[in-house]
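pinned: reference chain
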Amino acid sequence: MKKITILVLALSAFLYSNDIDGKEVFKTYCWGCHHETAEAFGPSFSEIANNRSKDEIRAYIIDPKAMYEAFGYKRTVMTEFNLSDKELDAVTNYILLQKGK
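pinned: its structure tokens
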């Protein structure tokens, strides 16, 4: 029984340590052009969250060139990033946290 408990605790610690913080993904990839609540080079995350669904946000991050015209943007197309699924989920959820701010 002790071995099972230790195994479960070790596995839980491993899974918890692999959680990715959306704010850290934002700081790494997005902060140069986006801010949480103020417009910078690109729209603020609050503007994005208030006007886009989770699927639309993900689609734009995955393939900005394809979504650029569909969203009616006039500025330069966003840089493409090769984010992992966990990073993509984390930053998408972080963007959505800015809704209403």
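why pinned: Residues 7-17 have pLDDT under 50 and may be disordered. Residues 20-97 form a domain with the Cytochrome Bc1 Complex; Chain D, domain 2 fold (CATH 1.10.760.10).
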